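Retro notes (design track)

What went well: tokenization of the new backbones is finally stable.
What didn't: we kept losing track of which sequence belonged to which structure.
Fix going forward: every design gets posted as structure first, then sequence, in one message. First example under the new rule, 262 residues:
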């Protein structure tokens, strides 16, 4: 059912929403989600008030997010492919939300210049602690693997992250889109509070996010891998747009990434 709520306005200015509820075992209560009828973005309005440490505990990577190793393998392949078109091996990369550092370490082995940044403490890591930074730095590339859906005040948080890291040239990120959500949406596995998923994006909302921050949104495969590129980087935008064409064809024909979207 579509609900009009003039007191609740989406960033696209719409006031019409669909409402969903999902119970969170970790939080001990039901989470309200709303989906904008105009841009398709799903948010959990009260999530900024939740005690997120109940979700991101020491068992999170073992019992909840068990797809990280598979995603890292795929992202390593993608990063090497993107490097053919845009020479990101020459750039300073921040693996933002690096978790246990598995992806960062894998990329370093392949010649990428990476520092890991992780706001939640990791007890065991694959990456030596000396490669973790505890504060933002001037990065050319922000790599954000399965981070965008964990934000609770997304537009404001991303604006701050971009500012803190001196507005990097590229934001390479993964997140699943509402454009591809099955029906009914409230049964979608990606809409899961115990996975810490409180903001689920659409192409339209990511395009708007880019416009508000001076970036062009490019979806590399229409499903999983996306890039925000500075609007004034015209040559880079053209190269990335061209490079996305064979990726979309490959993913559409093979469906190779769906099992790693947990």
């Amino acid at each position: 059912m579509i609900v009009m709520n003039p007191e609740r306005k989406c960033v696209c200015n719409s006031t019409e929403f669909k409402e969903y509820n999902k119970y969170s075992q970790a939080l001990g209560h039901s989470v309200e989600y709303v989906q904008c009828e105009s841009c398709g973005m799903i948010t959990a309005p009260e999530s900024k008030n939740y005690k997120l440490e109940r979700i991101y505990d020491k068992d999170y990577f073992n019992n909840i997010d068990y797809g990280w190793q598979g995603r890292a393998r795929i992202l390593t392949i993608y990063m090497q492919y993107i490097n053919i078109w845009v020479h990101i091996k020459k750039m300073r990369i921040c693996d933002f939300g690096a978790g246990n550092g598995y992806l960062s370490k894998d990329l370093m082995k392949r010649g990428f210049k990476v520092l890991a940044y992780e706001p939640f403490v990791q007890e065991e890591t694959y990456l030596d602690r000396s490669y973790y930074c505890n504060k933002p730095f001037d990065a050319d590339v922000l790599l954000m693997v399965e981070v965008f859906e964990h934000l609770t005040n997304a537009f404001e948080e991303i604006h701050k992250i971009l500012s803190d890291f001196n507005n990097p040239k590229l934001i390479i990120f993964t997140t699943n889109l509402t454009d591809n959500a099955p029906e009914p949406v409230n049964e979608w596995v990606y809409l899961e509070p115990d996975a810490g998923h409180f903001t689920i994006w659409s192409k339209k909302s990511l395009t708007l996010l880019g416009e508000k921050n001076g970036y062009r949104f490019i979806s590399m495969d229409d499903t999983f891998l996306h890039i925000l590129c500075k609007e004034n980087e015209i040559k880079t935008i053209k190269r990335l747009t061209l490079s996305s064409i064979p990726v979309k064809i490959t993913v559409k024909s093979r469906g190779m990434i769906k099992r790693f979207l947990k």
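Added context from the reviewer: The first strand starts at residue 2 and ends at 4.
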